[in-house]
Design the sequence.
């Protein structure tokens, strides 16, 4: 599209000019555990991770959900940059995967089916004709076993879950471990590991919705950079066609800092696309930078995954009232889901997502929080 380069925010504060939050010596790395309610007859807890700089991350063992991420703005005022609910009841009712661990297969599998080693498997079609985020009862809707920890370098939480053979149609007993940890460098690290006793597709990620304004405005005024030159083209059902078009010169291009709202009207339905990262799969490299000019908050996201799904909150429609009574309208949050490509089991040309006995699934995603003056 002609003239797109003119929208490039060269006049904005550079997302590279970061200043760490000043340390508060009275605080230290810590984890607090409290009751959060009952789900499926099991006790559910809320764990609060706090670092020396006053950054707070709250996580519940229901769905492995990150419920809160509290970070200061450029004036030092704390704000919660994650969408979600004030209580467990919200997550048990209607939720678009706020903050959850999604799996066994994040994103979509076409027609809810795939063939593995000559056998066809059928999954629940919970997203039109397709399977989405693990099916009807994915990893976001179960109680995980939890154990907290803290030492001189980090405060964290280890979550484990056994997805049994046949659960939601997937083969194999899959043992999953998720470790969340917060350090004094203002980094939240997510490590996901899995092992299986039968070959099975595995694609796990966290599904936090971010709004760096703290919920004061939509995310259309946020500035996004993605370390990507291509994306997985999709059809009307958001299923990959197999093509990987270049983003240069189109509304899909975030290779340089762009306002999210500047070209969103040129993308039918809004952004909900997997971007192919430039780095090598398995390498912990920079995937995206998200910056809010109003608050000065910034998140740099690093991952070992080959792709990142940028979702601009297109299906938020004002019917959900979240924390502190904030109504989540269209584009009131965005997701940056580190993952393998959608529908990979049906696209042998995509990076492999089949985990076999004796192999280990390992994925790391790191969020680095800072402010721009």
Sequence:
């Amino acid at each position: 599209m002609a003239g797109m380069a003119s929208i490039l925010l060269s006049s904005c504060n550079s997302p590279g000019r970061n200043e760490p939050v000043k340390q508060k010596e009275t605080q230290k790395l810590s984890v607090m555990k409290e009751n959060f309610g009952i789900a499926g007859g099991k006790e559910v807890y809320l764990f609060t991770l706090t670092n020396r700089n006053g950054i707070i991350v709250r996580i519940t063992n229901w769905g492995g959900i990150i419920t809160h991420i509290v970070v200061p703005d450029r004036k030092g005022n704390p704000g919660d940059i994650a969408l979600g609910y004030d209580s467990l009841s919200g997550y048990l009712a209607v939720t678009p995967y706020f903050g959850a661990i999604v799996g066994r297969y994040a994103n979509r599998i076409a027609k809810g089916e795939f063939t593995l080693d000559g056998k066809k498997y059928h999954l629940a079609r919970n997203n039109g004709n397709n399977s989405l985020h693990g099916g009807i009862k994915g990893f976001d809707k179960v109680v995980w076993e939890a154990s907290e920890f803290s030492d001189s370098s980090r405060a964290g939480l280890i979550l484990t879950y056994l997805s049994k053979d046949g659960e939601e149609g997937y083969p194999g007993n899959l043992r999953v471990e998720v470790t969340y940890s917060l350090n004094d460098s203002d980094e939240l690290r997510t490590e996901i590991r899995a092992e299986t006793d039968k070959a099975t597709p595995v694609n796990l990620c966290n599904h936090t919705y971010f709004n760096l304004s703290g919920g004061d405005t939509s995310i259309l005024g946020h500035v996004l950079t993605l370390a990507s030159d291509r994306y997985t083209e999709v059809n009307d059902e958001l299923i990959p066609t197999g093509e990987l078009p270049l983003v240069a010169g189109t509304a899909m291009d975030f290779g340089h800092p762009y306002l999210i709202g500047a070209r969103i009207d040129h993308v039918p339905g809004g952004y909900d696309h997997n971007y192919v990262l430039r780095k090598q799969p398995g390498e912990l490299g920079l995937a995206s930078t998200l910056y809010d000019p109003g608050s000065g908050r910034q998140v740099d996201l690093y991952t070992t995954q080959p792709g990142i799904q940028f979702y601009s909150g297109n299906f938020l429609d004002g019917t959900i009232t979240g924390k502190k009574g904030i109504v989540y309208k269209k584009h009131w949050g965005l997701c940056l889901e580190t993952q393998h490509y959608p529908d990979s089991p049906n696209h042998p040309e995509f990076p492999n997502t089949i985990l076999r006995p004796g192999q280990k699934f390992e994925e790391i995603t790191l969020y680095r929080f800072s402010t721009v003056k």
